[in-house]
Design brief:
It is built from ten helices and no strands. It has helices at 2-50, 53-72, 80-91, 98-122, 127-176, 181-191, 195-208, 213-223, 227-242, 246-305. The protein is extended, with a radius of gyration of 34 Å.
Length: 307
């Protein structure tokens, strides 16, 4: 009787496991996935709330306004001006089209115009001061975005120039350790950060997708028209054509770039006194003369004025 009871119990257990195991497993997996989704949403919400107000509200609102205004602008065929703007945006590393850039200029000009109108209406100023403020706002609206774009291009190219010797040294060390050029590019992407590293990662991606190495390097030089980078790319292509070890070319190029960077720093140091002379003469020395000689001159004027 006990044996029969045990057999029946085991049979019922096996039957229950056979019937309900798969649905229970599916329900348990669904529950785990829902919990993971809830936790990820909570983490994303916490990260979003920790960001500053400008990043959470102002910047997304401005980006949405730029896209809306760019869609409202008339769509014209690509001409030379649009191509120049697109080229400058690429050189600046900005993922923006020419129509979006024009939309930014329009928004900035409109905001400045409204601000100037409000300032003129609220503050009582002379007509000449109002005209001067209006002309200044107009110049900022017209020239400001282009000046910002040129400064960003120059800053990006300078960062590439400064980072190039370190990248060459790491490439050389990686290749001396036995890695190939493509593997050395991966190592550079793991160890360093910056604009040049991002561009080299793009080169590695293009090579991985089947693009020839020479064409990928030429594209790198075309995207970033920096003299030092162009020389670096040309030396790599030349070394590959002639069968010269690339690491030897990298060592020579890195030494030359460090010498050029030191020479540029010395040149800037030599120019610093000349640049400091203008604010010194216009702003510092007149105030110093007023403080030191002003009381004496006033006393002399009082004494001789009474004679």
């Amino acid at each position: 009787m006990n044996t029969l009871t045990i057999c029946i119990s085991v049979s019922v257990f096996i039957l229950m496991m056979t019937i309900f195991y798969k649905p229970a497993k599916i329900a348990d997996n669904n529950r785990k996935r829902l919990n993971q989704i809830k936790k990820s949403n909570e983490v994303q919400m916490d990260d979003a709330l920790e960001q500053p107000f400008i990043q959470r509200i102002i910047i997304p609102f401005f980006i949405g306004m730029v896209k809306w205004v760019s869609n409202l602008l008339p769509k014209k065929k690509e001409n030379s001006s649009h191509q120049k703007i697109n080229q400058k945006l690429k050189l600046a590393g900005m993922s923006m089209t020419s129509s979006e850039f024009n939309a930014v200029r329009l928004i900035i000009g409109s905001c400045l115009f409204v601000g100037v109108i409000f300032l003129i209406a609220v503050v009582s100023l002379d007509s000449s001061a109002k005209l001067l403020i209006f002309i200044l706002a107009l110049l900022i609206a017209l020239i400001g975005p282009n000046v910002f774009l040129m400064l960003k291009i120059n800053r990006r190219q300078e960062e590439i120039t400064n980072q190039l010797p370190d990248v060459m040294d790491l490439l050389c060390v990686s290749m001396e350790a036995g890695l190939g050029f493509d593997s050395a590019l991966i190592k550079v992407g793991e160890r360093l950060n910056g604009v040049l590293v991002y561009e080299l990662n793009m080169v590695h991606t293009e090579i991985s997708m089947g693009k020839p190495r020479r064409d990928a390097l030429r594209s790198l030089a075309e995207r970033n028209p920096v003299d030092e980078l162009t020389t670096f790319v040309a030396s790599l292509i030349q070394a590959e054509k002639l069968g010269i070890p690339i690491k030897n070319a990298l060592v020579v190029q890195a030494q030359e770039l460090r010498v050029k960077r030191r020479q540029r720093a010395e040149e800037k140091a030599m120019k610093a006194p000349v640049k400091m002379l203008i604010p010194l003469v216009m702003f510092v020395l007149p105030v110093l003369f007023i403080v030191l000689l002003g009381p004496t001159i006033l006393q002399v004027i009082d004494q001789f004025g009474g004679i």
